[in-house]
Amino acid sequence: MAWTKTTKGKSVLLEETVTMADSGGGNATYALTSAIPNNLYDWENKKITVKFKVASVSGADGDVDAIIQTSSTGTTSTDVMTPGSGSTPDWVTASSVINMDLDTTALTEHESHLVDLTDVYAPYCRVYLYSDAGDTDGACTFTVSIALDAHDALEQSDIGGIGADPS
Description:
Helix content is 2%, strand content 41%. The chain is mostly beta strands. The strands form three sheets. A five-stranded antiparallel sheet has the order 1-2-12-5-10. The chain is globular and about 40 Å long.
C-alpha cells in the first residue's frame, strides 16, 4: 500500500487502493490506508475532500463506512486488523463517520465527501474503512482519493523546479 500523488489545477490528489478481507461470516472487518504524515501534506486544521470507489466486489453487501483516524502516539505500528478484531492502540477517531454507505457488491464510484479536520493536529492521519454488518462473502477492494489544496502540498518537483533568473 502506498499513496500515489498527482496534481490537477490547484489541487493535489492522493490515491491508494486497499483490500478489505472477507468478514469470515458475520465478523467485523477492516481496511486501512497508509499513514499520511503531516510534514509532507498539510491536512491538519483543514477541510479535506475524500472520495471512494469500489474497485472489486464481494459476494454480499458489507455496508462499509469510513472515518479519518489520527495517530495519538506518533507511531503507526501496533494495529491488529483481522476479521472480528480491530485493535488500533496508536489511532483515534478524528472525524465523525463519513456520510456514506459503500455497497460492496457493485463497482461504484461514490460522491465526494467533505471531512472537517478543523482543530485536528497529529503527526499522521489515515482512512479507516470498516464493516461490522453481516457477511461480506469474500474480499473487496476500494480506491480511496483525498484532495488537498496545491499551495499546501506542492513540492518543487511538482512545478518543474526553479528556472533561471528572468532579469
